[in-house]
Amino acid sequence: MVKHLYHAPADCPVCGDELITTRKGCLKCGSELAGEFASCEFCALSEPDLQILRVFLGSRGNLREVEKHLQVSYPTARARLDAVLVKLGFDQAGERNAPEHAEQDGRDSDSATPESQILERVARGELSPEVAAQLLGD
Q1: pTM given for the model
Q2: Domains of the chain by residue range
Q3: Are 118 and 86 in contact (CB under 8 A)?
């Protein structure tokens, strides 16, 4: 019998800080390891976000193929991919956000909501209001 594996939350439900993995186990033999294990940057993505990445990579970066596979318009496919890139810390040019953008008003942007991150990018001129509206509408 195969157990259903659930996607672990990335943030603490009590304080909102990042969770770490402290136990790993083998489904086949039951062996377990305990300790502090780093999580990957993709672990915090939702299943729909991971699906978009899988489709995008499987189509070798062709957004028209993503559009067809997801049965959505090109702007919607683009907006969804842009939203995933924002969650992964990339800017409009596909580069990692510089550390000086990581904090605004004394808050760490990693703990900010995706909506506030999108609005911050509009304020910095990294996103157009139209793209932001599409991202916020999904």
Answers
A1: 0.49
A2: 1-41, 47-137
A3: yes
